[in-house]
Structure formats: C-alpha cells, structure tokens
Input
Amino acid sequence: MDKKKEITGNRFYAYSALTMGTLAMVACFMAWSNFAPLTATLTKMFGLSESEKTLLLATPVLLGSIMRIPIGILCDKYGGKKIYIILMLFLLIPLFMVPRVHNFGMLIFLALLLGMAGTSFAVGISYVSVWFPPERQGAVLGIAGLGNIGNAVAALTLPRIQLAAGLSAVYNFLMSLLVVMIILFLIFCKEMPVNKEKTFASAFSVAKEANTWYLSLFYALTFGLFMSFSNLTPMLLNGLFNLTPVMAGLYAALFGIVCTLVRPVGGSLADKIRPMSLLQWIFIGIALFALWLTFSLHSEGMFIWGVIIIGLFAGLGNGIIFKMVPYVSKGNTGAVTGFVGAMGGLGGYFPPIVIGFIKTWTGSYQLGIILLVLAAILCWIVLYRVFIHGGNRIVQ
Output
C-alpha cells in the first residue's frame, strides 16, 4: 500500500510539474516578448529608428540566451522549483519599471533585464524532465515546450490591453500573471531530485561533447526562427503591407501558435522514428519556404502563408531536437538544455539586428531572408555528413 501511495504521489507531482512548469513558461515568455507587439506604440513614444527598433527586439533575447547555461546548471544543483520562483520574482522589477522610463537607453537596459525571462525554458525543461522515464521524454518535453506559446499570447493580448487601458495596464497585467504563477508553484509543486555535489566545472563538461554543439547548431536554426519571426513579424507586416498593430499581432500570434502546437508532435514522432532522419526534411522545408518568402515581399497573402509554414517546420524541429537532449550527457540535462537553449536563443538574437541593418543598407528585406536559406542548407549539410552518412548516433 505504501509503495502504491508513493507511485500515486510521484505521478501527482510529475503532472503538477508538467502543468505548472508549462504555464509558468507561458507567463515568462509573454514577459520576454512583450516589446514586439508594442513596437508601434514604443516607436511613437521614443521616436525609434529602424535599427533602434530591431535592437530593442533583439536585446531581451541576448541575456535570455546566454544565461540559460548557468541557470540550467543551477537547476540541476538546487532544483527547478526554487529557481523558477526566484526568476519570476526578479522579473517583477523590470516589468514595474518599463512604463516609467523616458529615454531609450534606460529602455534598452530594462529590455536586457527582461531577457532573464527567456531562461525559463532551461528551468522548465530541467524541472519537468526528471519526473518522466526516457521513453516518454519526446512527448513530455514537447508538451513542456508549449510554454513557448507565451509569444503568441503576448501578440494577441498586449496590443488590445494597451489600446483599451494604456501602456501601464500591459505591465500590470504581466506582473499579475507572474504573481499568480509564484503562488501556484508554492502550493502545488514539489522540488525535483537534485545533485548538490554538482559543480559548475563538472556541468560544463557537456561542452566537450560534440553532440552538444551539433544540437546547438540545429536548434539555433529552428528555435532561432521561432524567436526571430515572433519578434519581427509585426514589424515586417507593418512595414511591407501597412497592417495595423492589432492585425500584425494577430498574424504573429498565428505563427507562434502553429510553431508551438506542433512542437509536441515533433517530439512524439521522434519517440517512434529516428530523430535525425526526421530533421533532414525539416531543414529542406525551411530552406524551400524561406526561398518562397524572397518572392513574396509584394504579396501579403503569400508572405503570411510562407511565414506560417516556416513556423510549422521550425516547431516540429524544436520538438525533434529536444527529444535528444536528455541522451547527450546523463545527469546533466539542465546543463545540456542550457547550452542548446542558449544557442537557440542566440539564433534568434542576431537575425533582427542583421535584417535591420540590411533594410537600412539596401532598402529591402530580401537579402536577409536569403541568409536564412543559406543557414538551413548549412544545417542540412552538417546533418547529412555527420549523422545520416557519417553514422553518428544520439538516440538509437
């Protein structure tokens, strides 16, 4: 009887971790991507140029990417519940300050601090993964990754809140969400098993694993696409087709929803089919539809469909890649998640800056999109040479 109770209890805590870890990630991703849906409003308030807009969009991604590595390691050492609560408490500070600043320099500084919200991915994956057996990791981590939908929820809700009640109401709403998540975490979640003997030096040993870097490269493309297009789509649709912030936010949300909802599908497929075999079709699809976009810059319908289909491929790829993360280095899931997640985040940091520079230099977004085609081709070449033709295995 005691054993049965223990199993039932573990099941309760496992599903509590999965549910709350995912919901907390939604709230954190809304905070992380709050500037993209509000770009038009912030541009008027601060008189932003094209390059300043793209810098503002990219800045939160920087800290949110780099800090995933140490945050993932801290989760393995001290526990995901503690780190999640501390993270959400910290985010209340920059969210409180944003509507109260009056110069671009301070806004950029707060955008940098809000980047910490992006580390919620490393926390969530590390916290959720320990509660489930290896044969269910693909599906479970795909579900946990649904927290990425926070980008889409932000695109849908924040422009409407701003339009109805003003900018301060947006940040009051985000702070309220985080406070609710903190309370629910304290009530319903149990701390994960931890290894208090773990050191940063031992955790960084995952950097010696070649497969850590291969997955990082692939995730830089797929998750980088998710972050880039979540942030850039409102600006692109406004600049190319003069869509209103609400309509541009709607299409950005549609991209984010598609990209996020298919993530567990990718993870589930990778539980049944060799992940690297699936990935080659992901990279081919991204390259083809990125090429489609280069010919769609004067057609609103074609451009929107191209963005959404790229979101489909990128979302599947995200789920497939994270099926493999727990297999790279046993006992270091948080560290590997941090590394791979950091590279994925950096994959979303540079494109907005590059595209902003290219648009200023050439007057068009076309060359920036062509670079995406080349990045997908590069990933396919590495995948083929190392895993398809070379015979490397992460998951048998």
Summary: Residues 25 and 114 are 14 Å apart (CA to CA).
